[in-house]
Amino acid sequence: MNVNQQLRSPQQLQHSSGDGPREVPPPVQQEAGSGPRQNPQQPAPPNQPRIYSPSNRTANGSAGNDAPEEPAGTPIFEGFTPQQENTLSKAFSHAKRMVHSALEKLKTSPPDVNYEMNFREPTPENVKEVERVLTNMDKSMAHDQYTFKAAEPSSEVPESFGAYVNTHDSDHPHEIYVMPNFWNHAPETNRTEGMIAHEISHFKDIGGTEDLA
Prior knowledge:
With 213 residues, the chain is α/β, with parallel strands linked by helices. The chain is globular and about 40 Å long. Helices cover 30% and strands 9% of the residues. It comes from Caballeronia choica.
């Protein structure tokens, strides 16, 4: 299951390139996926701490009382075609099921070969850390507000990236930036779902995982 994997990158941006499976965090010094990134608006520069995202953000991303609120766990999409929004919505829902299934399996059965392939050696500390991150992901994906934004390559974000997040942008919590390369993997089973889950694991209030260089 390609839900989680990590790789450490020299920069603050966390990303998925779609070139391989992604993992949730190993031990406390977790590492994951492909090298992350966040971009200007494409997000603001990666120099602010990432803060917990409450689920009371409105459809326009603000916390106002006049605009209707999105149901908890329902993503907001900005800059996509209806077809792309549908693809992202399905991928997000599938990612939630994958994370929940992985968590339940970890709670009810000992780590197997797939566990070690995805999360490294199942030491007690490692298993505890993976369970912590999966638990946070499971709760957050069910109740928190996530925003997906269309993004383009830049000097900081290569076109090879499929998606990235800026874990130091406190003004835009839980935003995931989707690159054009993401759509090259849309038809592949579990690939887009894996990228989404991988990016979510980077948020500091969830897992704080990093990409390996």
